[in-house]
Write a structure and sequence with these properties.
By secondary structure, the protein is an alpha/beta fold. The protein is built from 13 helices and nine strands. Helix 4 runs parallel beside helix 6 and helix 6 runs parallel beside helix 8. The mean pLDDT is 90. It binds ligand C2E and magnesium ion (3 copies). It comes from Paenibacillus vini.
Length: 292
Amino acid sequence: AAKEAGKGKYMIFDPSFLQAFNERVQLEKYLRQGLQNEEFLLYYQPQLSLKTGRIIGFESLIRWNSPELGFVSPLTFIKVAEDSRLIIPIGDWVILQACMFAKRLQDQGHGHYKIAVNISVIQLIQDNFVDKVMESLEITGLEPELLELEITESTIVESFDQLIPNLSFLRSKGIQIALDDFGTGYSSLGYLKQMPITTLKIDKTFIEHVPNDDDNRSLARAIVLIGRKMGLKVVAEGVETARQMQYVKRAKCDVIQGYLISKPLPEKEAIRLIRSNPVYDIGGKTSALQHP
Ligand code: C2E
Ligand code: MG
Ligand code: MG
Ligand code: MG
C-alpha cells in the first residue's frame, strides 16, 4: 500500500478519472451497438386529468436493455448519448415510435390520447429537427395537437435564443410544448413569458415536499399559480400519494402523473389499462384513490 501511495505522487492521471473515462467510452460503444441491434424500447406512463379522473395521455420514457450491462437507467445513458451526439438518432427513433404508439391506440379503437416525448436540446437545435418531427407526424398520420414535446427547463435557459425559432415553428403547427422539471432551472418569469410553450411540468422534488398539513405557502402551490396566470396547462409529476393528489388538485393543477396512477408501462400493459376504461376517484377531501 505504501508503494502504491508513493507511486501516486507522480501520476499524471488520477486512476479513478481514467476508469470513469474508460467506462464512458465503453458505454458509448454499447449505445452505438444498442441502436443498431434495437435494444431500446419505450415505456408509457399515464397522465390523469384532474377534471375528469380519466387518463388523457402518456409520457414516453426510453428503456435500454443492454446484453452487456443489463437494464441501464436513462439517467445514466442520456447524458452520454448527448455528449456523443448519439441522442440524435436515438431521439429520432423515439419520436417516431411514440407517434406510432399514439396512432396505434386510435387505429385499434382505444381512443385519442396525447403522447409526450422527452427531447434533448442537442436534438432541438439541429436545423432539420422540425422537418423530422413533421415527417414523423406525416408518416403516422398523428394529429400534431396530440404530440407534446418536453424540454427540461434547465437546458432551455442555456440555449434560449437558438431554440426559439424551432420551438415557435413547432408550436405554430399545433404541437404542444412542455417545460419539464419546472422549478429546478431558475428561468426568470421574463423568459417564461417569451417562450412558445403550452405546459408546465412541476418537478417531482416539489411534489415530494408537499406539506403534510394544509400549508399553502408551499412551492408546489406557487408554481401551479404561475402556470395558471400565464395561461398554461400545469402537470404535476411524481405524484405518489392521494394526499399529494388532493393538494395539487386544490391548487388547481390540471393533470397528474406518478406512481399513484401507474408506473411507466410497456405498450401491452398500457393498452390493457386504457381498455379497462378506468375512472379514478379524484373527489372528496379524504377519499383515497380507488382503482376500478
Ligand atoms: P422526466 O422526463 O422528468 O421523467 C420522469 C421520471 O420520473 C421518469 O424516470 C419516471 O419513471 C419517473 N417517475 C414517474 N413517476 C414517478 C413517481 O411517482 N415517483 C418517482 N420517484 N419517480 C417517478 P425515468 O424513466 O428513469 O427517466 C428519467 C429521465 O430520463 C427523464 O425524466 C428524462 O429526462 C430522461 N428521459 C427518459 N426518456 C427519454 C427520452 O426518450 N429522451 C430523452 N432525451 N430523455 C429521456
Ligand atoms: Mg419528461
Ligand atoms: Mg420531468
Ligand atoms: Mg424529472
